[in-house]
Every structure is written in structure tokens, then in C-alpha cells.
Amino acid sequence: xxxxxxxIFLNSVSRNFLTIKIWTDEGxxxxxxxxxxxxxxxxxxxxxxxxxxxxxxxxxxQIEDIWQYLYKGAYWRKGPVTMTAIGxxxxxxWDIKGKVAGLPVYQLLGGKSRKGVTVYGxxxxxxxxEVMVNLGNMIKEGYKVVRLQxxxxxxxxxxxxxxxxxxxxxxxxxxxxxxELEWNTTKYMNFVPExxxxxxxxxxxxxxxxxxxxxxxxxIEAARLGKILEPYDLxxxxxxxxxxxxxxxxxxxxxxxxPLAIGEIFNTIWDTKGLIxxxxxxxxxxxxxxxxxxxxxxxxxxxxxLYHVRMAPHGAPDLSPISSMAHMHFDLWAPNFAVxxxxxxxxxxMNTVFKFDLKLVDGLLYLTDAPGLGIDFDEEAASNYPYKRxxxxxxRLEDGTMWGW
Length: 405
Ligand code: EZ4
Ligand code: CO
What we know:
Oligomer: single chain
Distance between the termini: 45 Å
Number of strands: 18
Bound molecules: (2S,3R,4R)-2,3,4,5-tetrahydroxy-N-oxo-pentanamide, cobalt (II) ion
Number of helices: 13
Helix content: 25-40%
Mean pLDDT: 95
Shape: globular
CATH architecture of the largest domain: Alpha-Beta Barrel
Radius of gyration: 21 Å
Largest sheet: 10 strands, mixed
Low-confidence stretches: none
Strand content: 15-25%
Number of domains: 2
CATH superfamily of the largest domain: Enolase-like C-terminal domain
CATH class of the largest domain: Alpha Beta
């Protein structure tokens, strides 16, 4: 079997998604997600100009060799654009391998380690009251784990919201320039404990809760937040501080027992190495797309398992349903999987383009035994939704200093 053609689709289906379709000479195809929020065109040209020509005629069953060829062979290793492009190819090759074998991908990885995939949903809101209503509804729907995010009072569109549009800012595709938001650490530090205090007072101690700090604190502030939130028993605090310098996590770790999660912007196992082997984190959030595919994510999981670090892949709305399905297979297999971020089954528009079959029962997602990744992509429906340039917001302190969003 040979790779005959690789097609690239960039569409704004509720938001921008980059989809690839690898065709073999035997009529089987595989699908991959190469979406890199706000930098989509860079991945398109990396694929079109620098990857596709090298893969035509290659044997699609050689997944490991193709991965090494694209990683080592480029000479220029790592980076989100490179690794997302490789991730899309890798996913599509696993899809093909599953279809050829007539098996779902989790079977090729080693079979199921659990009956279903525990997910965490988002309870967002413009105020604590609103978050509490949303949390209550999610508990009723059966969610076992929920992430809480609330807008800070008296600030301009702080995390979790964007002006009038409160939920799922990533779904928006109408931002031809980055919107500018404002950040105030003091207000945040005073406010967040109230959010979790209310959640425990109203809904008790059984529901597992988490929170995403989105890289907005310094290490010592992060240490303090972890400590303050200890009484509310979080499953994890995510992205307290960027880990460009992995040693900064030692400061956080020595002060708090609140579990720590990081990794959604990691793109190779090297981004995880110090954090995992020094036991500075508890959950690794690497994704199949931005982390370079299923092939390297399996290696990260195995490495992490030596240090009791569990996998909790990123599942924000800017990962396409193809990544979500790839995660499902990975999550079912990985012995040290913990929880999958899940934002629902997609908008009606998305459902005309991406076809898949998942069931959510009592907070667990269940997969069918469809071969490969178990997802299809309707090219014609997708062509109704042309790409629109769109950016994530940027963030400044109140005095104008550029900050992390
Ligand atoms: O803001 O994926 O945990 N989830 C997140 C995401 C990120 C987006 C950025 O594109 O932090 O919502
Ligand atoms: Co995050």
C-alpha cells in the first residue's frame, strides 16, 4: 500500500479547523487534525510545501519510521507548527492502520484499560452565581469532574469570558485582529477562593473540581494560590506558570499539595522531561495534535507512568473532533490516563461536517468499535465554511504591560 495523495482542508466550521486526508492507492483514507489556533496558515504551508511531497509513494503502515523521518529528517526539530503538522499526519496514519486491520485504534495500542473515558466539562460564567447554576446542571447531567472559571468582577473580559460572549471564546471566528483584555492578579487572588468555597458549600465534597490559571501568575503567587485552595480539594490546578523554565515548578511544589497539571502547549517529550522526572507535576495535558501525534503521546504516557504522573489530554474547542476521537482511543488504552477535557458534542454546523459516534453516560464517554479513529469528514459540507483569519486575545496589566493571556 502506498500514499497516493494528501489533501488539506482549512475551514471555519464554527471556528477554524485544519483537517488532512491521506489517500492510499487502495482507496482507504485516514483523517488528521492540524489545527493550531491563530496560526493555522503556518501549518497549512508547512504541510503543503514541506511534508506532502516527501510522503507521496511511501508505505502508510510505517508509522514510526514516517514520524522519525519528519522529526529527525527536517533537521529543524520541535516547535508548535512543525509538531502540529507531524501530529496531523501521525493521526491519519493510525486511522489508516485501524481501517486496514478492521480494528479501532485503541486495540492497536494494546486494548482497553477501562470501560469508558472519564471527562471533565466546563462550568463557566460571568459571575459566581452563574457558575454555580452551570455546575449544578452539570452534576445533574452526571459529570464527575468539572472545571470552574468565572469572570472577575470589574475587569475587562477576564479569563473565561469575552465581553458579551461568555462561553467558549475559542469557538469565535470573527477576530481578524487580537482583542486586548486586562488582567489584575490581586483581584484574581482575592476572588478565586470564593468561587471554590461556594462550590463546596453548595455541592459538597464529592464532585471533583479543577481550574485553569492560564499562565497568569509568578511562581511564588502560584505557590500561594495552591496553598489557599487546599481546603477545597481540587483535582488539579492547570497552567499556574509557564514552564519555559521547568525549575520554577520546584517553587510551587515545595509550598502546596494541590495537584498540578500542565502541558497543553507542549510539543515534545522534552517539554515534559524535567517536570515529570523531578515529580513536579501530577497531570500531563499534552494533546495528540500539538504534541506530534499518537505515536509520541504513547511514549510520554509510558515515561510519565514511571513517576505516577497521569495523562489528562487537552480538549478545548480549538481541537477538532478528529483530535477528540484520537484522544478517546489513547485514553481508553493508557494505563495512567486520568481524565479527558470535554466541551460537548459540537455545534450543529460542526455536526454536518464531522461524523462520529460517542455516548456520554454518568460522566464517562463511550466509543463504538468502528475501525480506525471512528470519525468521518464531509468535504463538501466543509466547503460551505471558508477559513476566516482569527486570533486568540492578548492580555495586558492595567498599566499596559503585556502579560500572558
Ligand atoms: O485557551 O485551547 O484548558 N484549556 C485551555 C484552552 C486554551 C485554548 C487556546 O487555543 O486553556 O481553552
Ligand atoms: Co488550559
